[in-house]
């Protein structure tokens, strides 16, 4: 029989307390902000608490999985993800608000692109690990195809935010796997050179949409409304903020999507510049821990996996804060671990579970 | 050995990986720093700007329209008032299919074809995001019926507000004017004057008459309510309120009853009448007939009614009193007589022998007197009493047009009187210089002859003639005619007291002579013999006829032969009591023919009411008929 202490040890065996503390901090921030953003009603707060609980459970399970298990599920997971993603294109795809991102499986409606957030880097890391001894240019090319196909399918849904995140996670794997600088720079230059040609090849309405993304004030009451109201919320927060539950932009309904994509504006308005420094600090804390875990990862697979997860988490943060504060176009990326939404939290927690597994299992191996 | 190489490779691999990871950390750090800079910019450097933006998001300023000042006559009879009522207003931008919407509204609230026509006209003239009334003066029942179905009509709302109403619209139309919906031109004017802000929320502005000229006083100061609103524009709570300041009430110099008596006295005649208190310039009656119902202009008149008014041969929209220009006819004679004495061209005792015509030296052209056989011996006194044309043909020739011009100008002819109404015209007082400039022609002696009896180029407005009559009545001391007696004011606020405009310093004996002749005009032997019949006060007057069409040489004017609109206009100027005048007036009866017959009785009814409080009764039958058919 295990006593309490042993039980605790058993539970915490594959947990990283530092990372866990950071994630706990995010949960508190998220719940407090949701309470404010939903004008003091507990509905979303309770639901989000449930999301976190499910997320932590998933994290614990994944963290306790040995690394070779992860290696083993990489290919089936990727294949399953691709099948579901293609399924979205069939009549089983569910259209909502002009985008077809969901798949009706009869029992439940799932969003395959969320699964791909984990499946794509896992697959690529597995692929590089398999071919570690004989890495050639060909392998990088195949790895590129492995992430570009799902990205292309997701862009078509359309879901710009998710495709950017998956594309970024794929690129991070490529980069950390040692993709030649010549190719990176060459591809960058090629993109720059071809941009004007691509621009002229676009339809007028497509150009219009791109311009609108870049300059929201052109459509202040339409798509630009989100950005402008977000910037007003952030800016009017000032140094110290308007105080918890006292944001006028938030509580008088001016801020759109304030429990989801624009929740950062709520934080900014109510806690000001100082609050933003603190929140940014929390993100840096978690990202930094991720980098440390990455740096200490012992295998090629785990290094690529941990690096991609950490950098993708950073990308999530940067894109969301950037779009709310008006330096990036609004592409529909939630604020990681804070925005309301069960799927995003589950996916993120799975990622952190992988990080913990990487960290704790190799430590066990070493000692 | 191989193991050693593998180990070395492994370390190399880790080294390169960590290099790349380090670069990634740097990259992430750089971008996070960019975010930090952005936050600093938004929240520290520009926070004032965004605070203002958030504030203007949140705070909606609702203007509160002040109550417009009411207008009463000198005794407090209300001439323009406000009453609370409901309108059904539409914001066209919010409605996809207007015809369909109107049809739906029509099921709840009656919309007459007239309302629809007026609404269409407003649609054509509207400003963006303005609400337009589809129906005014809703009954309580209609309000209740629509309110219950309100949710079905986004963009249509019931508005409670004050409406303007003119209880005596028909008789006061030309002096009160009316308010109407503000148009773009008026907005531009307000903008330029820098007072557009005071008109936020105001839909109406004075368009004509007193409503126009005292707009500033009567509009009041718009109040504001700051309301916190949510993104849907719903008011959440009131933040602050600045009460509006009501416009000032006006008390006119007008005597509403007198005004009504005057309008009635005209009967079916068109024309104008202005009665002035000569001792201070207060306008007691101001009539331009026909009038029209100004109430229909307030919320926009429909096209058909407008066309009917605008195309009527009676031109009801024309303010004859202020803007009508007519030859003054023989009413010029008392002023000419004074000019003759002023320039020592005629002495009171000088007389002529009137053969019934006048000729210029060296010309065979006959300038006929209205009396074919002439008046015999005529001196200055008699020339006025019998209105002898021959006497004034000669006087005019001896004075010359330029001296006539200079003298008559002193009485205010040829220029605006400055009455407190907009749109006054200046008439025309001819001179050689004027003709040279206007027609590039020299002045002919013949022009002067007809000018002597008030025909030819010389044109006056009824208000000018009333003003000159009042000045004469007041012994040459003139007061600016004005319609507003008092503007509502605080107890300690000083009010202007009418000051004399000028004093002509007419020698008393000359004044007495002309005035006594004018009294004789209204007595047996005079041209307006009926005018003072039975009056317990003395009346000084002068008749006049303004020719509408020229009579050919050797032809006699026959009223029966010319169409109604081409008949002569009848003038009568008068003041009473003659020795201490309390009222001076000018009456014009368009196409009325003879002044003594048509214009004088009108004047008499007005004076009777004013001086005796006597409501008009039919004058003695002899009054109009026994007067010498003269001019």
Number of domains of chain B: 2
Q: H/E series of chain A, N to C?
A: HHHHEEEHHHHHHHHHH
The fold-level CATH name of the largest domain in chain B is Beta-lactamase
The level 1 CATH classification of the largest domain in chain B is Alpha Beta
Average residue-wise pLDDT of chain B: 86
Strand order of the largest sheet of chain A: 1-2-3
What portion of the residues of chain B fall into strands of 2 or more residues? 15-25%
**What about the largest sheet of chain A?**
3 strands, antiparallel
Q: N- to C-terminal separation of chain A? A: 25 Å
Helix percentage range of chain B: 25-40%
The N- to C-terminal Cα distance of chain B equals 145 Å
Characterize the overall form of chain A: globular
Structural class of chain B: alpha+beta
Number of helices of chain A: 14
Q: Report the largest inter-chain contact.
A: A-B, 42 and 36 residues
Your description of this structure?
The complex is a heterodimer of chains A (367) and B (631). Chain A has helices spanning 4-12, 17-37, 43-63, 67-87, 112-130, 137-156, 160-176, 181-201, 204-214, 224-237, 248-251, 263-296, 300-324, 342-366, and strands spanning 93-96, 99-104, 109-110. Chain A is globular and about 60 Å long. In chain A, strands 1-2-3 form a three-stranded antiparallel beta sheet, with helices on one face. Helices cover 71% and strands 3% of the residues of chain A. Chain A has 367 residues and is mainly alpha-helical. In chain A, a hairpin with a 2-residue loop joins strand 1 (93-96) and strand 2. Chain A folds into two domains: 18-36 and 44-64 and 203-300 and 320-367, no CATH class; 69-201. With 631 residues, chain B is an alpha+beta fold. In chain B, strand 14 and strand 15 form a beta hairpin. In chain B, helix 13 crosses helix 15 and helix 15 (389-399) packs across helix 18. Chain B is elongated and about 145 Å long. Classes of the chains: A mainly alpha (367), B alpha+beta (631).
């Amino acid at each position: 029989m295990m006593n309490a202490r042993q039980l605790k040890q058993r539970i915490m065996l594959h947990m990283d307390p530092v990372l866990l503390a950071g994630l706990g901090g995010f949960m508190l921030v998220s719940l407090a902000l949701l309470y404010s953003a939903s004008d003091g009603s507990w509905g979303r707060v309770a639901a989000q608490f449930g999301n976190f609980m499910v997320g932590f459970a998933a994290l614990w399970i994944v963290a306790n999985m040995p690394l070779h298990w992860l290696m083993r599920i990489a290919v089936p997971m990727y294949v399953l993800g691709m099948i579901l993603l293609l399924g979205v294109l069939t009549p089983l795809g569910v259209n909502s608000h002009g985008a077809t991102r969901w798949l009706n499986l009869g029992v439940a409606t799932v969003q395959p692109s969320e699964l791909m957030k984990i499946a794509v880097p896992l697959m690529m890391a597995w692929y590089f690990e398999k071919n570690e001894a004989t890495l050639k240019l060909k392998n990088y090319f195949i790895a590129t195809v492995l992430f570009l196909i799902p990205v292309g399918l997701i862009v078509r849904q359309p879901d710009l935010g998710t495709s950017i995140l998956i594309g970024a996670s794929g690129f991070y794997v490529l980069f950390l796997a040692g993709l030649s600088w010549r190719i990176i720079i060459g591809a960058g230059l090629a993109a720059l050179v071809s941009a004007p040609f691509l621009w002229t090849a676009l339809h007028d309405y497509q150009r219009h949409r791109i311009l609108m993304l870049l300059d929201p004030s052109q459509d202040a009451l339409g798509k630009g409304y989100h950005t402008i109201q977000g910037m007003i919320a952030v800016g009017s927060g000032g140094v110290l903020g308007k105080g918890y539950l006292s944001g006028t932009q938030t509580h008088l309904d001016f801020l759109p999507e304030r429990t989801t994509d624009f929740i950062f504006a709520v934080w900014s308005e109510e806690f000001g510049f100082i609050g933003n420094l603190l929140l940014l600090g929390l993100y840096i804390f978690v990202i930094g821990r991720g980098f440390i875990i990455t740096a200490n990862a012992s295998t090629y697979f785990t290094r690529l996996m941990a690096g991609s997860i950490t950098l993708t988490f950073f990308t999530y943060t940067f894109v969301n804060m950037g779009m709310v504060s008006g330096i990036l176009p609004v592409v529909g990326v939630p604020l990681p671990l804070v925005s309301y939404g069960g799927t995003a939290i589950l996916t993120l927690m799975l990622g952190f579970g992988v990080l913990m597994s990487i960290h704790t299992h190799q430590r066990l191996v070493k000692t | 050995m191989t193991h050693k190489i593998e180990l070395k490779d492994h370390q190399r691999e880790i080294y390169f990986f960590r290099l790349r990871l380090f670069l990634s950390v740097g990259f992430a750090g750089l971008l996070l720093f960019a975010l930090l800079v952005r936050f600093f910019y938004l929240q520290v450097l520009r926070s004032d700007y965004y605070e203002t933006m958030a504030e203007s998001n949140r705070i909606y300023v609702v203007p509160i329209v002040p109550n417009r000042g009411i207008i009463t006559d000198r005794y407090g009879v209300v001439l323009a008032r406000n009453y609370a009522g409901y309108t059904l207003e539409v914001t066209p931008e919010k409605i996809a299919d207007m015809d369909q919407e109107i049809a739906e509204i029509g099921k709840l609230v009656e919309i007459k074809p007239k309302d629809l026509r007026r609404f269409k006209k407003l649609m054509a003239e509207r400003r963006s995001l303005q609400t337009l009334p589809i129906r005014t003066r809703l009954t309580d029942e209609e309000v209740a019926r629509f309110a219950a179905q309100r949710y079905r009509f986004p963009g249509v709302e019931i508005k409670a507000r004050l409406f303007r109403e003119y209880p005596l619209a028909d008789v006061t139309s030309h002096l009160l004017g009316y308010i109407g919906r503000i148009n773009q031109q008026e907005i531009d004017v307000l903008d330029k004057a820098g007072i557009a802000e005071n008109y936020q929320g105001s839909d109406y502005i004075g368009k004509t008459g007193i409503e126009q000229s005292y707009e500033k006083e009567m509009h009041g100061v718009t109040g504001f309510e700051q309301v916190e609103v949510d993104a849907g524009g719903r008011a959440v709570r009131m933040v602050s309120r600045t009460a509006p300041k009501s416009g000032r009430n006006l008390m006119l110099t007008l005597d509403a009853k007198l005004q009504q008596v005057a309008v009635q006295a005209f009967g079916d005649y068109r024309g104008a009448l202005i009665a002035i208190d000569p001792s201070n310039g207060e306008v007691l009656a101001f009539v331009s007939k026909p009038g029209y119902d100004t109430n229909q202009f307030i919320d926009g008149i429909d096209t058909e009614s407008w066309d009917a008014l605008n195309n009527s041969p009676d031109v009801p929209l024309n303010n004859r009193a202020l803007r009508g220009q007519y030859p003054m006819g023989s009413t010029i004679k008392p002023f000419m007589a004074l000019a003759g004495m002023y320039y020592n061209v005629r002495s009171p005792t000088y007389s002529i022998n009137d053969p019934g015509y006048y000729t210029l030296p060296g010309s065979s052209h006959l300038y006929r007197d209205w009396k074919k056989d002439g008046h015999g011996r005529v001196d200055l006194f008699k020339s006025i009493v019998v209105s002898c044309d021959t006497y004034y043909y000669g006087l005019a020739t001896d004075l010359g047009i330029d001296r006539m011009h200079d003298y008559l100008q002193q009485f205010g002819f040829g220029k605006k009187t400055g009455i407190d109404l907009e749109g006054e015209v200046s008439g025309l007082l001819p001179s050689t210089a004027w003709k040279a400039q206007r027609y590039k022609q020299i002045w002919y002696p013949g022009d002067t002859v007809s000018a002597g009896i008030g025909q030819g180029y010389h044109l006056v407005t009824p208000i000018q003639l009333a003003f000159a009559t009042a000045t004469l009545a007041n012994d040459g001391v003139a007061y600016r005619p004005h319609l507003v007696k008092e503007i509502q004011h605080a107890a300690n606020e000083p009010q202007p007291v009418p000051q004399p405009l000028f004093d002509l310093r007419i020698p008393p004996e000359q004044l007495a002579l002309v005035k006594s002749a004018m009294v004789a005009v209204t007595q047996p032997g005079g041209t307006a013999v009926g005018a003072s019949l039975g009056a317990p006060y003395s009346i000084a007057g002068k008749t006049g006829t303004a020719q509408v069409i020229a009579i050919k040489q050797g032809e006699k004017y026959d009223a029966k032969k010319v169409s109604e609109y081409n008949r002569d206009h009848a003038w009568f100027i008068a003041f009473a009591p003659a020795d201490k005048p309390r009222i001076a007036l000018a009456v014009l009866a368009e196409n009325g023919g003879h002044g003594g017959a048509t214009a004088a009785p009108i004047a008499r009814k007005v004076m009777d009411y004013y001086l005796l409080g006597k409501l008009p009764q039919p004058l003695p039958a002899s009054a109009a008929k026994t007067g010498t058919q003269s001019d």
